Amino acid sequence: MEYLSALDPSGLLRSVTSMSSDLGRKVWTSAPPPPRPFRVCDHKRATRKGLTAATRRQLLDKAQETLKLSGVLTLVLEEDGTTVESEDFFQLLEDDTCLMVLELGQSWSPSRSGVLSYGLGREKPKHSKDIARITFDVYKQNPRDLFGSLNIKATFYGLYSMSCDIQGLGPKKILRELLRWASALLQGLGHMLLGISSTLRHAVEGTERWQRQGRLQPY
């Protein structure tokens, strides 16, 4: 009878329900997301900090402490002022996203120039596409080099690339090159003068020959 009572449908239903609820709690209580890097600033963009956080609430707490903020805080995207209100939207943000933390009464405003400017050392817009990327690399092969060497590399549409390497020279090499160019210039001038003198000599000899033959009478 005890075995038959254990096979009661209502008891089996309660057992299955209990197992499903335990399994659901184990699934929904999985490990929290790992911390990710973000860049935060105040509404004036005067202070910028790099923070890591796993959730939106955690990032707001760290930003409040780091930026010395108080009161009710609002998290928005720095590029366009989109409000980050939900945790789901926060988890969809990419790493190193620039965010602005606003206090009560503050509002987002674009940069002073009216457009987003990306200077040296700053990231480019997320949805932009590279057309051409040019890099300049200045280096010295020898500490005694007077001028450093310059390497220029250009990449177009991420597929085609070309580079140019301009080698720098040391003081001795520069002096040697100057002397070599001066020697070549003087040598060229010497050949030119020899050619002119040879032409003049032939002209004088021809004139004298014509005079002896009586074709040209002297004054």
From TrEMBL:
Its main location: cytoplasm. Interacts with DFFA. Interacts with DFFB; inhibited by DFFB. Interacts with APOB. Interacts with PREB/SEC12; facilitating loading of SCAP-SREBP into COPII vesicles. Keywords: Apoptosis, Cytoplasmic vesicle, Endoplasmic reticulum, Golgi apparatus, Lipid droplet, Membrane, Phosphoprotein. This is Lipid transferase CIDEB. It is a peripheral membrane protein. Belongs to the CIDE family. PANTHER family: CELL DEATH ACTIVATOR CIDE, LIPID TRANSFERASE CIDEB. Transmembrane segments: none annotated. Residues 34-110 form the CIDE-N domain.
